[in-house]
Amino acid sequence: MEKYNVTGMSCAACQARVEKAVSAVPGVENCAVSLLTNSMGVEGDADPNEIIKAITDAGYGASLKEEAGGHTAAVPNYDDALVDTETPKIRKRLIASLVLLIPLMYVSMGHMMWNWPLPAFLEGNHIGMGIYELILSGLIMVINQKFFIGGFKGLIHGAPNMDTLVAMGSAASYVYSVYSLFAMTVAQLNGDAAKVSEFMDQFYFESAAMILALITVGKLLEAISKGRTTNALKNLMKLAAKTAVVLKDGKEVEVPIEQVKVGDRFVVRPGDNIPVDGTVVEGSSAVNESALTGESIPVDKTVGDSVSAATSNQSGYLVCEATRVGSDTTLSQIIQMVSDAAATKAPIAKIADRVSGVFVPTVIGIAIITFFIWMLVGQPFGYSLSRAISVLVISCPCALGLATPVAIMVGNGMGAKNGIMFKTAVSLEETGKVQIVALDKTGTITKGEPKVIGIFNDEGIDDVDLLRVAFALENKSEHPLAKAIVECGLSHSMEPAEVTDFTALAGNGLTAVLDGEKVYGGNLELISSKVQVPDRAIKFADELAMKGETPLFFAKDETFLGIISVADVIKEDSAEAITALKNMGIHVVMLTGDNAKTAKAIAEEAGVDEVIADVKPDGKEAVIRQLQEFGKVAMVGDGINDAPALTRADMGIAIGAGTDVAIDAADVVLVKSRLSDVAAAIRLSRATLKNIHENLFWAFFYNIIGIPLAAGAYIHAFGWTLNPMFGAAAMSLSSFCVVSNALRLNLFNMHDRSHDVPKKNSLGHEKLINNTIENNESKEENLEMEITVKGMMCQHCEAHVKESLEKVNGIDEAVANHEENLVTLKTSADVAEADIKAAVESAGYEYCGIK
Q: What is the reported pLDDT for 141?
């Protein structure tokens, strides 16, 4: 996405005009203009020069934003982004306007309405008073010429905007007042006192000036409030370090942050902020990561642990090696995510966009019709003009344009402050609409760090010998379960014995040669094909699986050694987080590759509504597709194999500690890797969407009520009329009200569960997919058959038949008995007899039919 600065926009009509102009450029696939940040994001392969030309031709200014890039990961410059250049300009304009407006209002209103005394040179001098008001109001119009330049430029380009309404209202008041002044002068020269008094009452100089001053007040309040909506982003930018203390030739040297390269070693003293992302190579300390995660409790860091830029070293002296610098640091990526989200547009904003495109021309049409209707019913020219001017100045397209982006910006900032990153405005809006949350088990519900729960040696086998074989074998493996056994071996002060001919059998286990003997480790299927596994061990393994533990079998040559049970421990907050999701009316599903028994035990502990077991890594995407038939689905995962499912889901949520591939594929990133943040993200999304609805209601309600009032539609019913000055005041406050309402989101507590309620479209907690454990179990009970197989002589034969049959789709389990020539099959689907026969014969045995 290319980003551009856009200047000259004043309201939603300008925004719509720029979007229309850029969308017409060949090569532009998508365009999103932000009135809040005066920026634009463009997707496609269009020439930037053509895009800038299109914006210029539409009457606005544009420039390409400078992005940090290149293979050197240049350091982003946030200084310009932190400087508010707009508010001081508006403040100066307002002060100058007020200095001139006060003496103008004293004469035009104070004297005329309350008979306040006048200076001697104006006393009784009607023409002098008129010239006095003409000069002061003219100067105020010059000070606020921005409205006239922008407004009439938009009119010339066929794209009238808010400035056009203000400029037309103010100019009409001024021009008619000038006419009245000359007409009064002629009447005075002719000695017509009645005409002089009549024209004197038709001066609207103060209205022309007051309209501009009040709109400027509104613009100032709006600019200040808009500045506060980006406070969270600015606070993140302020955390970016300017310098770092780098070790060069053993000496500490302070260098600009731009000079730090990947691989450099840098020093962080107690109390200092960490300048770039890195790994601790020396020392230990407590590091406060609240700036990035919102977590106030410091995290202990020691050698080998990673540290992030903008976090604060609390106590110890650290030497770290830089791993990510410049725009690659975690801080820079968070800032980039928030910034990118501001450059995108939420779907709900399209409602306001459609209205904004026709709003200003419609208002101008209503003002003209209002003028002629009052003229036709016999009202004076001045009265009719006053009603038309009121229509022009009360109408506010700004509130429509700001209703969505200000809430999105505040919501995004709140999320960033609490370690929840929404990549786009769409993701912030849509997250709150999810009805189903699918959770990957490993690393999401569980810690993803399996631990050895128990060592169970077989009769006559020493437990030390069992662990020694397991340690030597698993030390060569990269599997997470292997890591648990390696850690267990190290904790027993063992050294891993050297093995040869190491082989990893995908999905089954490991084989190798240790001290000249063949050793095996893995699942029951592998081990039972090599040695005879006692029935008591198989039964015990089933009991372990029922408790959520994974039994690993080990053997040496033809001797069964025993079982080591390993389990992935559930995170401390998982059960509470899942309960919170369920209380919000969300259906929670757990996806896992574990067998049904292990999965069921973990599911019961976690409290999910539904568990889908035996899901292969490439099968998660298909499960998400099935779940989408029931409602909007959010997928939460952390691994590379989760990326397709994260992409397929309506909302992909990546755990921050996961892989870069998963984070890239996701729509929302949880920096803290805490499952409770899924519920917090949904709460924040719902609160933001509610705030947007409130803003849009106010913007539409204000105009629906205000325009008829200004036009005089309520005069006969209620006697209500609206002075153009009060119309301008209402217009100036409408945008301020919208922005102020959005700022209320800063007070929202996204971790407060007291207000959680199910939405009307909640799916409840009944099972959705038939492929659940309970259904599988019922099918296992209902779909069981026995077949006769001849030729089996021993348990090895049984294992061969079992292995061959269980490869057939639909057969979940095959239990062979060589003494009775019988095999019991448990199936979850219809299986063709021809497939059963082929499987038996391929194993080298005789199939004799179904019993």
A: 93
pLDDT for the residue numbered 792: 80
Backbone torsion region of residue 368, taken as left when φ is above 0, otherwise alpha when ψ lies between -120 and 50, otherwise beta: alpha
CA-closest candidate to residue 429, choices 350, 356, 330: 350
Question: What amino acid positions are annotated as catalytic residues?
Answer: 440
> What is the average pLDDT score of the chain?
82
Burial class, 427, CB count within 10 angstroms (exposed 0-12 / middle 13-18 / buried 19+): buried
231 neighbors 413 (Cβ within 8 angstroms): yes
Name which of 743, 580, 620 is nearest 224 in CA terms: 743
Q: How many alpha carbons lie under 13 Å from residue 502 in its C-beta half-sphere?
A: 13
Distance of alpha carbon 393 from alpha carbon 834, whole angstroms: 83
Among 70-84, 221-235, 320-334, the range scoring the smallest mean pLDDT is 70-84
What residues does 503 pair with on adjacent strands? 511
User: What's the CA gap between 197 and 473, in Å, rounded?
Assistant: 107
Give the C-alpha separation, 372 to 383, whole Å. Answer: 11
DSSP class per residue in 122-149: TTT-HHHHHHHHHHHHHHHHHHTHHHHH
How far does Cα 601 stand from its chain's mean position?
33
- Measured CA to CA in angstroms, residue 451 lies from 447, 457, 486, 569 at distances of 10, 18, 10, 7
pLDDT digits (tens, 9 = 90+) for 239-296: 778 889 999 888 899 999 888 999 999 999 988 889 999 999 999 999 988 777 666 6
Contacts for 432 with CB less than 8 Å, ≥ 6 apart: 682, 683, 684, 685, 686, 687, 688, 689
| Helices of type H across 345-420 | 349-376, 381-394, 397-417
Rounded Cα gap, residues 503 and 510, in angstroms: 6
Summarize the confidence of residues 178-188 as an average pLDDT.
Answer: 88
Distances from the Cα of 216 to the Cα of 20, 93, 141, angstroms: 28, 8, 12
Go through 312-350 and write b for each residue having 16 or more CB atoms within 10 A of its CB, e for each that does not: bbeebebbbebbbbbbbbbbbbbbbbbbbbbbbbbebbe
pTM for the predicted model, two decimal places: 0.67
Q: Alpha-carbon distance 462 to 638, whole Å? A: 39
Contact assessment for residue 691 and residue 407, using Cβ atoms and an 8 Å cutoff: yes
